[in-house]
């Protein structure tokens, strides 16, 4: 997710700069991060609201698993009852426009034109959340709304307002471990913690300009209602999540992208694989540590290697057995056989990875009982107050 956010900022920065000069507003990487968090929702002057007593226009041909306007209204009402009044409400004109364009796309009228570069299920999911009087948009959609004239200028938010939300406490746990005198033994639990601390530190550095602990949003007033054509492109530019959307907000696991899809897919894959290799390789620091038994030391070594290499091996397996790769190697075989081989290998890799992680988790606790006396000797660092 961190890599996706960084790429989103990199892709959209130049395009936002054009409107920044034209609109005379401050705009930085922090503003783009803030937009990707849903910090700049667009509110429409409700010209045709749907009251509780009115019938909601249906959207026909919605795929199974996609939330209808009725479902979204119920979900938002439950959230409103729990956290307080929410200004979101269904907008009849938006629903009618959504129904019209969804019918066209579901019947294949826009496929030949190349208008959509998003899978239909993800597109229609982004489309249905635009049925209200408030759109919670990400940076790509915000920029598109400005380009289409739905908003007449970018929001004015001083950099100082965003800096107030930036984290100032750096993760120092990994550095703190480095201060520990080398003459004293280190426990497996400390290495276990170090692996998470290193990954957290890298994520923190990548997202150094992202506002932290954001609790408020800056609402932008729309100058016009969207046309049916506008909705096609707004949904196409929306974030891609994992799993169904039960409300109008941007999920934490969303992958942001602009309409032109400039971010290479392999970059995201390589970032995830690098993180897993680094995470697993850190456990190898305890390669020659003291363990209760020789068998447990062997299992620790195997589990560390599996943690580091399981997912990269799975990625390579998937790439090699991919149909396009088989054509390059001129491999001829029955598709069903290759599918069975790939599924069996993937299942084996996942099971081995889970077992390896379970063993490491249990072993770090069990090994505490067998630590040498030197591990419990206090040092000068114990006299310095810790942060957090």
Quick take:
This protein has 388 residues and is mainly alpha-helical. It has helices at 2-23, 29-36, 69-83, 92-106, 120-128, 139-148, 159-163, 173-179, 188-206, 228-236, 265-283, 294-320, 323-328, 335-366, and strands spanning 42-43, 134-135, 220-221.
Q: Which key features would you list for this structure?
A:
388 residues, mainly alpha, membrane
Give the beta-strand count: 3
Strand order of the largest sheet: 2-1-3
Helical content (DSSP H or I, runs of 4+): 40-55%
Radius of gyration: 26 Å
Low-confidence segments, given as residue ranges, are: 168-173, 325-331
Question: Could you say which overall geometry the principal axes of the C-alpha atoms support?
Answer: elongated
Distance between termini? 25 Å
Oligomeric state of the chains present here: single chain
Overall mean pLDDT: 79
Count of all domains:
2
Question: What's the helix count?
Answer: 14
Beta-strand content: under 5%
Structural class: mainly alpha
Report on the architecture of this protein:
This protein is an all-alpha fold. The chain has 2 domains: 2-166 and 212-261, no CATH class; 173-208 and 266-383, no CATH class. It contains 14 helices and 3 strands. The chain has a 3-stranded mixed beta sheet with strand order 2-1-3, with no helix packed on it. Helix 5 (120-128) crosses helix 10 and helix 12 (294-320) runs antiparallel to helix 14. The protein is elongated, with a radius of gyration of 26 Å. The two termini are 25 Å apart.
């Amino acid at each position: 997710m961190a890599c996706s956010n960084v790429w989103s900022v990199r892709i959209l920065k130049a395009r936002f700069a054009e409107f920044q000069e034209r609109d005379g507003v401050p705009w930085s990487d922090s503003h783009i991060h803030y937009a990707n968090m849903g910090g700049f929702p667009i509110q429409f002057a409700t010209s045709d609201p749907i009251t509780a007593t009115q019938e909601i226009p249906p959207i026909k041909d919605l795929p199974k698993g996609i939330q209808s306007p009725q479902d979204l209204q119920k979900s938002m009402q439950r959230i409103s009852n729990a956290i307080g009044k929410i200004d979101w409400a269904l907008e009849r004109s938006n629903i009618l426009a959504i129904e019209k364009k969804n019918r066209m796309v579901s019947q294949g009228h826009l496929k030949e034109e190349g208008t959509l570069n998003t899978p239909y299920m993800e597109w229609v999911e982004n489309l249905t959340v635009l049925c209200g009087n408030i759109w919670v948009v990400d940076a790509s959609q915000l920029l598109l709304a400005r380009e289409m004239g739905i908003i007449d200028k970018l929001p004015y938010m001083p950099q100082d307002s965003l800096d107030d939300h930036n984290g100032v406490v750096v993760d120092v746990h990994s550095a703190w471990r480095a201060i520990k005198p080398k003459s004293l033994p280190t426990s497996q639990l400390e290495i276990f913690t170090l692996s998470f601390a290193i990954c957290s530190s890298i994520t923190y550095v990548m997202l150094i300009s992202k506002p932290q602990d954001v609790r408020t949003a800056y609402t932008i007033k729309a100058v016009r209602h969207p046309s049916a054509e506008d909705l096609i492109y707004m949904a196409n530019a929306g974030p891609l999540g994992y799993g169904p959307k039960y409300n109008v907000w941007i999920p934490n696991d969303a992958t942001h992208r602009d309409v032109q899809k400039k971010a290479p897919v392999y970059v995201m894959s390589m970032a995830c694989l690098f993180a897993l290799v680094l995470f697993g390789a850190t456990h190898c620091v305890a390669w020659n540590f003291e363990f209760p038994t020789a068998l447990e030391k062997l299992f620790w070594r195997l589990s560390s290697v599996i943690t580091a290499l399981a997912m990269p091996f799975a990625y390579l397996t998937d790439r090699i057995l991919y149909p396009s790769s088989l054509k390059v190697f001129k491999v001829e075989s029955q598709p069903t056989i290759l599918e069975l081989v790939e599924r069996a290998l993937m299942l084996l890799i996942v099971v081995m990875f889970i077992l390896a992680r379970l063993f490491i988790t249990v072993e770090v606790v069990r090994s505490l009982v067998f630590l040498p006396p030197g591990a419990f000797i206090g040092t000068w660092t114990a006299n310095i107050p810790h942060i957090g």
